[in-house]
Specification:
The structure holds two protein chains of two kinds. Chain A is of the alpha/beta class. Chain A is globular, with a radius of gyration of 22 Å. The termini of chain A are far apart. The model of chain A has no long low-confidence stretch (mean pLDDT about 90). In chain B, the strands form seven sheets. Chain B has a seven-stranded mixed β-sheet with strand order 5-4-1-6-11-8-12. A seven-stranded parallel β-sheet of chain B has the order 14-17-20-23-26-29-31, covered by helices on one side. Chain B is elongated, with a radius of gyration of 21 Å. The termini of chain B are far apart. The model of chain B has no long low-confidence stretch (mean pLDDT about 90). The chains are: A alpha/beta, B alpha/beta. The interface of A and B includes residues 317, 335, 352, 402 and 417 of A.
């Protein structure tokens, strides 16, 4: 039997996702109409023999997370539990801390998935790859090809081209090492805990030589990438399965729109029922659009491509939405135009207002390009990005909000461009 | 009676509109600028209008032949081969202006106001001297040349260029009336009437000022063109309110040509003029704009402070603002944002213009 672990992080993580992560833990932010995590859970639940999914993170248990877990268990008919770390233990420390929970029931292998990635999750392919290529107890990293420049923002993998064994692993190198990058999706077997245990014990010994400050915590904080993979590379224990299917990080809010596009496109094969169609008496749909059944949309509105409309959203006559996520309870009044933006929960956009951002999509002419993990500011100026309206923001009629981030609960009274509005 | 209109050159300040038609023929509130002036002159009894032009345009000549017929007057074109300034054209047209002893009007072609030609003639006859200039009040006299004159009689004492200390808030409005005898003061060479002729006339007690009642604007550039439109429409509301379009969906002063079509759920105004054959589709919001003949504005677009040139097409969900000017036959594709764009004729726009610039 198999298990899966999803690393969901905690409130100190995902700050690049502000102001949206103020309202909802980032892993529950809707991407293509469903919480980001649900895509992971669905992929895991599909793998034959999957017995349990464990979420590990350091969020305080809250109502939203509990409700999500409850619903997901029912929908996917699988045990899903949340294991809360006492502190941020890193990608390796978390699974090591909860190793008893993971190995109970003797799974022969388990997946580990980072929550902040968007992927086709070729988990079954990783399993067969391990069976065909790897040593019996080897570990598999999902890899993908990046362009040379962008590869340096990721974990880089050098492989033996014949065996796919990982010969060398380095996290975010400052010079080019390899264009194969780590997707943050792994297939481990319980032997991995021996390797992590070795690092843990070494950390503890190091601790003893130093003055005792919070030693236990520091010994247990272990990073899979730098502490484990780097050591395992070239030992015949670590393999890379390279995928051609879609993959992206979801670090910034801007990448959520890109990730939505990738998942909406995947719905053609996985969930065609989630894609809106042009129907008599319905809005005009262009490309891939998700509309929650409780949304109320005027038939003269035009939506898409790449639009997700949440629960209870109201969209008036002659509204245009493209490349955007509209979160639950938002109201878009007649004739307004929303492009490359995320409209926060319960926000209102007035008549003829224009809310527009600049997409941060990867270069469409480079098949290996990834989304840039852009910084908010460059040379002291806000870099043009998607426009984000936080929760309960009011945009008056006829103004333009361009390339701006509006923090929650603001009533704007004029146009804004290239600004963060506190 | 005769009048001379100083049309001058290519009207570069009003580009891109003047790349398609000569400036006098650019529509201002659904009528060529020149006709606003000529029709007012005809009403005051003028039967011969001389246009002082520095370049020849077949289009202008043809249009003037048509207007001669329509108005039953004579329109001559006086062509200067080299720039003659603001006074030289009077010398060039001397033979046309000199044929009798009647006073004649002179005006700059960029000026729009409630033209006071009858009052001006009366005022001029009453003081009996060589010339009268119309003056208008401005808020910031330090930006202009001002006219200092006796309030009672109107007799001009002097002109002060950009006064740093307040001396007067009246400026030359570019509208004059002169006796033919005044022509002897001007030679056929480049001369400035404001700087070289008027000060001498004032010194000799031959120049009087009449204050203009109502609005006045130099509409020689797009920003002022729109401001002048607002003033003109307000004047229409006072003098001919029946010309304004009212009813649901119309706010403030709006003029719509009867052949234009306006869709459902639009809000038009205040301060909008819509030309002949224009199509405004459903759900459009327009304020403080001129939309010229044959243009189309597609549904759900939002326009403020723009000039949409002849036969241009503005796509759906477009936002245009901040003195965006589309030349003739420009296409703005769907969902774009134009901020202060100056678009040359026959151009198709596929990308937003977030900051003011010229689109060649």
């Amino acid at each position: 039997m198999l298990k899966a672990v999803i690393l969901i992080g905690g409130p100190q993580k995902g700050t690049r996702f502000r102001p949206l992560s103020f309202e909802v833990p980032k892993p529950l932010f809707p991407v293509a109409g469903v919480p980001m995590l649900q895509h992971h859970i669905e992929a895991c639940a599909k793998v034959p023999n999957m017995k349990e999914i464990l979420l590990i993170g350091f969020f305080q248990p809250n109502e939203e997370l509990t409700r999500f877990l409850c619903n997901a268990q029912q929908e996917f008919k699988i045990s899903i539990r949340y294991l809360q770390e006492y502190a941020a233990l890193g990608t390796g420390g978390g699974i090591y801390h909860f190793r008893d929970q993971i190995v109970s029931g003797n799974p022969e292998a388990f997946f580990v998935l980072n929550a902040d990635v968007c992927s086709a999750f070729p988990l079954a392919e990783m399993l067969s790859f391990q069976k065909e290529h790897g040593e019996p107890n080897s570990c598999v990293i999902l890899g993908t090809t990046a362009n040379r420049k962008q590869s340096m923002n990721y974990g880089c993998i050098v492989e033996n081209e014949e065996t796919n064994e990982v010969l060398h692993y380095v996290e975010k190198p400052s010079t080019f090492v390899s264009d194969i990058i780590n997707c943050g999706i792994y297939l481990f077997n319980p032997d991995i805990f021996q390797h992590i245990g070795t690092v843990f014990q070494k950390n503890q010994q190091d601790m003893l030589l130093e003055e005792p400050t919070n030693g236990w915590h520091r010994a247990e904080a272990i990073r899979l990438e730098q502490d484990i993979f780097t050591a395992l590379a070239g030992q015949g224990k670590l393999y890379v399965y390279k995928t051609l299917s879609f993959w992206s990080q979801i670090k910034s809010a801007g990448s959520a729109i890109y990730a939505s596009r990738l998942y909406l496109n995947q719905y053609h094969t996985t969930h065609p029922e989630r894609l809106a169609l042009n129907k008599e008496g319905g809005p005009k749909i262009s490309g891939n659009v998700y509309i929650h059944p409780t949304a109320n949309i005027d038939p003269t509105a035009m939506l898409g491509p790449n639009v997700s409309i949440g629960t209870g959203v109201t969209i008036g006559a002659g509204v245009r939405v493209r490349e955007s996520i509209i979160l639950h309870g938002a109201t878009l009044q007649d004739h307004c135009c929303v492009l490359n933006s995320i409209v926060g929960w319960d926000s209102t956009i007035g008549k003829w207002a224009r809310v527009e951002g600049t997409p941060s999509d990867p270069n469409p002419n480079d098949p290996y390009a990834k989304i840039d993990s852009e910084t908010l500011f460059r040379e002291g100026k806000l870099t043009p990005s998607i426009t984000i309206l936080g929760c309960n923001v009011n945009i008056p009629c006829e103004v333009i909000i361009l390339n701006s981030i509006v923090l929650p609960h603001k009533d704007l009274n004029r146009s804004f461009k290239n600004q963060i509005i506190l | 009676m005769k009048a001379l209109i100083l049309v001058g050159g290519y009207g570069t300040r009003l580009r891109p509109l003047t790349l398609s038609v000569p400036k006098p023929l650019v529509d201002f509130c659904n009528k060529p600028i020149l006709l606003h002036q000529v029709e007012a002159l005809v009403k005051a009894g003028v039967d011969h209008v001389v246009l002082a032009v520095s370049y020849m345009s077949e289009l202008l000549e043809r249009e003037m032949r048509i207007q001669e017929q329509r108005l039953g007057i004579r329109i001559s074109l006086s062509h200067e081969k080299e720039p003659l300034g603001t006074a030289g054209p009077l010398a060039l047209a001397r033979e046309l202006l000199n044929i009798d002893n009647e006073p004649f009007f002179v005006l700059n072609s960029d000026v729009i106001c409630d033209f006071p030609f009858k009052d001006l003639l009366q005022f001029h006859r009453n003081h009996g001297k060589e010339g009268t200039i119309v003056v208008t009040r401005v808020e910031e006299p330090s930006k202009y040349g001002v006219v200092v004159f006796e309030t009672e009689s109107g007799r001009i004492h002097r002109f002060v260029e950009k006064p740093q200390v307040f001396v007067s808030n009246k400026i030359n409005a570019g509208i004059y009336i002169f006796n033919p005898s005044m022509l002897s003061r001007i030679q056929l060479r480049p001369t400035s009437i404001e700087k070289e002729i008027f000060p001498v006339m004032a010194e000799e007690g031959h120049l009087y000022a009449m204050e203009l009642q109502g609005f006045w604007m130099d509409i020689g550039q797009p920003k002022d063109f729109l401001t002048g439109m607002c003033m003109y429409l307000q004047s229409v509301r006072q003098h001919a309110p029946e010309r304004l379009r009212t009813g649901p969906g119309f706010l403030g002063n709006v003029v719509v040509d009867p052949t234009a079509q306006i869709g459902e759920n639009c809000t038009i105004g205040p301060n909008v003029t819509i030309g002949a054959g224009v199509v405004v589709e459903d759900g459009v919001r327009i304020k403080r704009c001129t939309v010229m003949k044959g243009a189309r504005v597609r549904s759900h677009s939002w326009l403020e402070s723009c000039i949409v040139g002849w036969s241009s097409s503005v796509g759906q969900w477009v936002r245009m603002e901040n003195v965006t000017v589309l030349g003739e036959d420009v296409i703005v594709n769907d969902e774009l944002y134009l901020n202060g764009a100056n678009v040359l004729p026959h151009k198709s726009i596929n990308e937003s213009v977030p900051e003011p610039r010229i689109i060649m």
